[in-house]
Amino acid sequence: MLGGLLGLGLAGCETDPVADYLDGIGDPVRGAALYAPRNLGDTSRWAGRPDGAAVAVEQLEFLASELATNPRWAPEVNPAVLQTLQAARTEMRGYLGIQPGADPQVVIEAMRRAAVALREGSRARAEAALSGPAFPGGAAEVLARLAAMPRLPRTANAAGMVAAELDRLDRRR
Asked: Is residue 138 part of a domain?
């Protein structure tokens, strides 16, 4: 039974490690941290796959926001990890042309909708998801950059740090 649940959870995490980790029975912060090295360790793996890149952006935004504000995690997380995640978020937003002060939840939802639209073959819906003040360069530019995602070194560093930090916290319990 546990193997089946684990398989379901891992399959779900390949598409969106933030949404319903382990089919809704797991902690989405843990799921996002667990998959950070895979999805954010070398963001150039998403070159040519803007849907996957959008999910990775969503994941980074989620981790940076949740680990800083979630009452379960924020008091325990090493401040260096939070600083590294903030630097990664700044790097990612700079590359994509996302407004530096954009509300993380706006970015998370926009990236999630864009990823779904791209997987379903609807560029128009993806562009609609990425329009608005959080994306001042325009949706077409964000989509082009998602499709040409390079390796982002600060993001890679944050991916390893957040996974190691969750492992450290789990060992303390």
From this structure: yes
DSSP result, 119-140: HTT-HHHHHHHT-STT-TT-HH
CB half-sphere exposure, 21, CA atoms < 13 A = 13
What is the pTM (predicted TM-score) of this model?
0.86
Residue 5 lies in a domain: no
CA 116, CA 133: separation in Å to the nearest integer?
A: 21
Task: Give the count of domains, the chain.
Answer: 1
The per-residue pLDDT for range 43-102, each reduced to its tens digit, is 999 999 999 999 999 999 999 999 999 999 999 999 999 999 999 999 999 999 999 999
- Count of CB atoms within 10 A of residue 132's CB? 13
Residue 62: domain span:
28-172
Position 114, amino acid? A
Residue at 18 is within a domain: no
